Amino acid sequence: MWHITNQKYGANALGLKRLLGLGSYHTAWQWLHKLRRAMVRPNRDKLCDLVEVDETYVGGAKPGKRGRGAAGKALVGIAVEMNSDEDDHALGRIRLQHLENASAESLIPFIQNVVQPDSTIRTDDWAAYANLNDYGFKHVSLGSKELKSVHLVAALLKRWLLGTYQGAVRPSHLTYYLDEFTFRFNRRKSASRGKLFYRLVQQAMMVDPVPAPSLKGPALPFLTGQDNSNLDPLDADLDHNI
Description:
Blueprint: H1 2-6, H2 13-20, H3 25-37, E1 50-58, E2 74-82, E3 91-99, H4 104-114, E4 120-123, E5 138-141, H5 148-165, H6 174-186, H7 193-204
């Protein structure tokens, strides 16, 4: 746990295997995914007051078409809480979720799950957000270019996935990587790695056990533009920049 929290940009299974002298890459991979599940605190507080919401596509071998749709990519919902005690563009906590699509049926439940009712929510003018007021939120529709905070988080997420894991993340495992990014981002201002270690240990004691079979997702393509034909199916977070 100390090794994982001490890595500024994230740990990977190959590095953990080498550090601990493990004989199996699979073992290191399972340990990391179990700890990623512990990075989500049960019954965590929802975002509140002023929140920006948008979606972004990650992965995929091709740029894809413009707009809300990109073949071979995975859609991620992003919610960013704006700090009320600082300037208008100060980033607070974030929440991320792997979404099936950009319809209201996917986006509204995501927002309800991560944002407190009566909060003000900024979005672009995508039709799926049009009825947010009917769900107990105060909706403000802006031009896409005005959502600077949520776009910054999207850019940082993509850079992190590409730089730390070479973009090699299965869609079936994407949620766990989003949880790790959220854990690290929300504690980015912490000056003490010891506090991060303590928090991860504390949360690991609060979550349910994670049986190994539950970590194995379906055989889906990697979210990357690389040729992964020679990689082991479990090598979803292989990083060659160690």
